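Figure caption, in words: inputs first, then the predicted bound structure.
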Amino acid sequence: VTSRLGESVVSHVAVEDRGANGRCLCCTFSVCGKETLISKFIAQRALRADVERTKTYRCRNCGFAFHGRGLTSEEAKNYYTNYRDAEYFRHRNHCEPLYTLGHHNRLEAHVRSAERRAKLQQYLNQNVFPAFDELEEVKILDYAGGDGHLVADLPYEKYVFDLSGEDPIADVIKLDRGEIARQKFDLVICAQMLEHTTDPAQVIEELLGHVNQGGYLYVEVPYRETWLDLSGSSSVRRRVLRVVEMNPKLELILDTYGTLIRRATGILPPLAYVSVREHLNFFTPKSLSELTRSIQALEIDCSRQKTLGTVLLLRKI
Ligand SMILES: [Zn+2]
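Bound structure (zinc ion present):
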């Protein structure tokens, strides 16, 4: 079983260090990088290697943050095959004691919640569906949508593309890659995927390829994941990493401290760092908007939407 994320598109960026040219992946302004560690779980599950270093880059213009190291298609396949099953949980919990079963289940419950589906429907009622009034047939595709739960309550014909092997739920038709290549859709939805991808601009282009002329692309990433960096200078960071690399217990303490404070306050506190986990990209609305500036589509909306996330809505022209 491999989810959509396990299939990588041909990448325009260097997988080993996506910030090597010193440019923001979204707006191309110059970026500064500080060293960080690849988490033990990503190293073991995706890279099949020991923990290594990379850099976390931040753009002062659009606020985008990203880890240098992306995943090759082979590494993405390693990571996203049987994604979030029992063995995934066991292994991750072993590497990251903070990733408890309660946390795991809360994430799943939110993703599948009725509140979230209702909020999406409300958003689409306002911004997309009025344009469909004159169409005889409307097709909606949830790209990488698992069993299609997110679109199940929506009107119109609903399809899901996902390689997870899950059966689609009632009213949703599952399509394979060949089938989605042979038709186009009036609305393509891609929720909570772009933050995992090595080449997000390339993914947006690919998604737009599935949209009808005049149709819409809805992209959603986490609500707010960027941080105010109070962690100290690059040289402080290098010293911190040198110490924790020799002391796994200290690494766990510092990682826990940094993660808890960052999640609660949006501040990366002194001495902390953001180690590489499955999110490689941390978007602001501005960065998401910048990412699509060279693409042939009209931006209808780019905003933070509570209970959904940071949302980008494009219309294909
Ligand atoms: Zn930027």
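Residues 24, 26-27, 29, 59, 61-62, 64, 287, 290 surround zinc ion (CB under 6 Å).
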